[in-house]
Request: fold
Amino acid sequence: MTKAEKKRLIDVAAGREKAELVLKNAKIVNVFTQKIERGDVAIEGGFIAGVGAYDGEKEIDCGGKHLIPGLIDGHMHIESTQLTPAELAKAILPRGTTTLIADPHEIANVCGLAGVEYIAAAAAQTPLTVKVMFPSCVPATPFENSGAALGSAIVEEHIGDGHIWGLGEYMNYPGVIAADAEDVAKLCAAARRGCVVDGHAPDLSGKALNAYLCGGVFTDHECLSPEEIEEKIARGMYVHIREGSATRNAEKNAKAICAENLRRFVLCTDDRHACDLKRGGHVDNILRILVKNGVDPVWAVVMGTLNTAECYRLHGYGALAPGYAADVVCVEDLKDFRAAFVVKNGRLAAENGKALFDCGVYADPRVKGTVHIAPLSEKDFDLYSRSDLVKVIRLLHGNVVTEKVVRKVKRRGGTVEIAGTDLLKLAVVERHKATGNVGLGLIEGYGLKNGAIALTVSHDSHNVIVLGDSSANMYAAVREIERIGGGMALVEDGKVKDSLPLEIAGLMSELPIDVFEEKLEKMIAAAYEMGVAKDIQPFMSLSFLALVVIPELKITDRGLFDVVQFRFTPVEAE
Reply:
């Protein structure tokens, strides 16, 4: 801000000059006092000049509606929406989200530093304020093959450099607790730059939690119980209330919020599909869930604005106060939080659910053409076992946590046969360096019949993940993925039923959100027609089955992995 701009802001605040824009006749949610004030909000040069009684060159009558600060998503993987940053902005800014903390962990596992740079540059072309965290664990563990590796030297070079705000979720909590040299080096690099470090520590407690926090971790979005929340807040952490597509804990964790701890909660979506964004909303959706489950509406707003801003050291964000960024949402009420209009950086950016801006397409050839699969045959998807008793991944609906169960199967010449059962074969095919790796296992609870589903979105290394009822169907699905250069594929009775390319890193579509959402909804409906259980999201749920930092049993391109024991395990149960 220049001297002239500062003087102008002060003159407007003092009432000596008219403001550029005044939001009149509003109920203003004060996140500092947790009270509601009546008055006007004066805006000048992208900042709030004052709250009170003001006149403006342009005035908008709020008609007694509520004004809240722009909502902030405290932890989000943009890639998981499967939209470009431009299309994401069009989807969420009209719903009141004006700022987000982006962790490009997904695209970094495919494209390395180029992926991080793509997200930062593409997001900068939008009106959103996007603070990019540098991915901390690429690959997430040493037990899978990713497309890149970002070691401590690269973290040291880029953390806090202007484009990078902090260190992304530290999923390798065992490495931190063990004081592994590489992990300590990354954490020290963040500490030297004064950067926030996001956490990822499901069910961590006691001395292990203490050790993790001594690494410098600030947050956690994996809490599953009030007891876990209480301990982590008591040890100084911020806890995310998360409502994504496959991971939803806002309703359950709302019960843990009280007057004594409400200032330690922040809100996030983590991984949320484009269809869910359009249909159910973004951070506004979390506010609705919290209020529906008994949380005071003003408390919910505080958690989605001021708390997140303070947690991530976003000075000048998260409140409607003099000198703060003019990110303002006018909502019809504090129950549904439907945005009548949204002001971003002092300008009207959305009205009645429609974006009032456009973003140019940001192209980067470094994030294209990322599918490289070694030659395969149907035999590569045959699963062999030396025993009739086998370990099976049991899918838990509404969560990314799975159970390890033991089932008896039929074998023919050592090959497991699943015909007539509710079991499916599950495989991860390495797709970054054409190594030929194919990890195999079994899953139950998904429900697919007479076909296969494959996609290049498989957390966190994003190899090809495929499940099906036969080797032939699985092979056909992977071949279709290869043909379209990454994306999603449905095969029924050996023939491709439908597919949807994800041109950017095999993770994101270049289509406009309306077109993409229509195509994705069609594929989801087709998956349900093929027998997928109605209470799971077919593609999102599948994508998390390779996530080896979430208990209990998962799979990578190297084989079946026991997360509790943190080691590979054979298919045989005895």
User: Anything to note?
Assistant: The domain at 68-280+296-355 is CATH 3.20.20.140 (TIM Barrel). The CA atoms of residues 468 and 527 lie 12 Å apart. The chain has two domains: 68-280+296-355, 368-568.
